Amino acid sequence: MNSRSLLIDGTVVTVRELGPSDVSELLRLHHSLPIEDQYLRFFSTSPRQLEDFVQRMVSPDEPQHVVIGALHGDRLIGAASYVVVDDPRSAEVALVVSHTEQAYGVGTLLLEHLSSLARRQGVHVFTAEVLTMNFRMLRVFTSMGFVWTVTPDGDVVHVELGLDPGEYYLDAVAERETAADVASLTHVLRPGSIAVVGAGRSPDSVGNALLRNLVAANFTGDLYAVNPHAKSVANVDCYASVSELPEVPELAVLCVPAKAVPTVAEECGRRGVRALVVISSGVDAEELMNAVRAHDMRLVGPNCLGVSTSSPGVRMNATFSAHSTLAGDIGLVTQSGGIAIGVQEELRRLGLGLSNLVSTGDKLDISSNDLLMWWEQDPQTRIVVLYLESFGNPHKFSRLARRVARHKPVLAIRSATSEAGQRAAASHTASTATPSVTRDALFRQAGVIAVDSVPELTDAVMALSWQPVPSGRSVAVLSNAGGLGVLAADACEREGLKMAELSADTVEALRTLVPVTASVHNPVDTTAVVDEATFARCLDVIAVDPAVDAVITVTVPTALGDPTAGVHRLNGKPILAVRTGQTERLADNVPCYAEPARAAAALARLAERADWLARPREFPELDRIDLPAAQAIVGGREDGWLAPDEVVKLLKAFGLPVLGGTLATNAEHAIAAQQAYDSPVALKAVADDLLHKSKGGGVELGIADAGGVAAAFRAFQQRFGDRLRGVFVQPMASGGRELLVGVAADEKFGPLVVTGLGGVDTDLVNDRAAALAPLSTVDADDLLHGFRAAGSALAGTNEPAVREVLLRVAELAASLPEVVELDINPLLVSDTGCVVVDARVRVTPASHNDPFLRQLRTS
Q1: With the C-alpha atoms ordered 620, 624, 625, 630, is the resulting torsion angle positive or negative?
Q2: pTM, whole model, 2 decimals?
Q3: How far apart are alpha carbons 330 and 460 in whole angstroms?
Q4: What is the pLDDT of residues 767-779, one digit of tens each?
Q5: Count of CB atoms situated within 10 Å of the CB of 614
């Protein structure tokens, strides 16, 4: 363990395991404490006893002793340890924090890392004895978020912490991480002083353009330029080096040649600079990060456009964009500088501005996760926009995005969907692009509104910025041009919206306002002769109809007038306008689109957000799960496929309805199994490298007697030879619809649960739905109905039984990281229930990564 983490004030510290070379520093830390901070009874013994205890804790011959420390620079400011005494699932924990650093979250940070390390070693409970006078230490333990008990015993309190990371614990960790991250990012997004290193005199240089942008934006802090060949650039005083600046800049923006970046970063670190923005591309990542790590700095980039802020009291445009950023309430983070410029220009044209722009480039340190935490706490930011080509920590991203999306819309431009796009993304961001199916599942479950282009993004942002979300998906279309109204209705249907059925009262009221040639049924066509006042009254009549959740107006100017001026804001319902050829903002903040399809798509994004906000968040508690039995089956295994009988035991341990069967290693055993079932059976060959049994000729169905079993066994022996390990004998299942349920594990994203048509249809039709485990009840419903053929496939079947199978499979995948692949095919579904007829499971040694551990990104 060796990671960089943040304290509550944004200070970067290193958390690592301690060894024999750290004994003197550990003893110094203990001896520096006042008596009231010595909380364990054996720490108040003699110095010699304490030294012996510390020596044993860091001894390589004592594997049951684990010690980690938090270091600020070279100084140890806190240490935590656990000792397994008798029960291997329980350990005594010790914690000590420097007296001067006890208000900055060192103790909770160390306990988070120590508990994560302990869980990997099979420890599930920490115990401690704390002096009753040590209120601060008691508060550290009880604020962790774990399930805990406290038992007073004279002048000592016995504390017990359960280390299973439940929701309350993860929420507590997230709260601490957000506070620390926001404090850290202040040096980047609200700096009091900036130095532009590499501010060239040529107007064509990036450094010159960036410095001019800072000057033009009237940066509110102290501004310096570093250029050894000039006395001033853009009327800003220049200095020969960072070390010669009259004060330590809080933020340094590096625009120097790539080879010089690590050296300049090291100089900035030695001077005390808190954060870097590295514009240069082609930088040696490891050399740069060595300097960043050594001096506890935060980093944006390299290979980026820069950063900007329009928060109150801060005017900072540290980018080399051609135009300044309008002040606004949209937070934008992007890996691509080109996308940043494109989005910025489109929003600017519509009068929409940014609260912050952060171009992360190669994102060696600061990423979208950091910015999500910043914007969650920033009252100025009302909408978050992301362009991501890769995910460093998708589990943390999902939890963060879900939390932010509860209060602020989060939008993302999808990228690298095609194979060519993935190659390009990997090439220019030095990252591996995320598979599109996994990414889309992540976005959908986290409440992220996904779009495919910059225009689609700005269309959605217009609607989300200026209109409320609808209470449903029923839309009314009002136009003065019948054909365009029909196109709008068609577009709404394509987007999953539905045309509202207007009430008789609404239809009658419209008849009194429009000519007899008008159409008063949805879509409503007023004809081209109505004026703006009449059009406005028609809009009011439609808007009060309870069947209408939203309205799209479509208007064209004629020689008789232009009813667009009659379009106005509605009370509590969204309204989107269409005026061919023009995308703009009408009066009353009504977004106006150039064509009906764009308006319908934007309204669908509003409805998508409304649907997600209304989703319940229940994760069901499933009974009949024997986790220890399941862990015994998959634990300690090498990479490979489980035997059929092991698969049956594993699925049954999670309460799945398995048909079952008997593994027979010879013909006599197979015959005995068939006779025991006293019914026709299926024989499935168990042979090396035989994964698709039907394709490989490894299945014989409907065998009703001993002769048939013997003949099938001999046929398998001839077909597979020495590869044959036996046969799996199963009773024939009754008829029903065949479905596929599968799990594919991803090292970063975790398990992806997939469903679709099963049996022979699996390979004929590419029709799947996918979601990331664990699944909420609503996630399972989405998965159940998410593939195209779901409606016909599930007609007349027991859907609740299938839903429960999905929930149990997701629970299995989330609970057993060893399971990297699982295929249930077919899952036989009928009106009475469902049964797993065949399944295969591949396991591999688990890595036990902790995605929620508080640590900064590593390059």
Answers
A1: negative
A2: 0.89
A3: 12
A4: 889 999 989 999 9
A5: 11
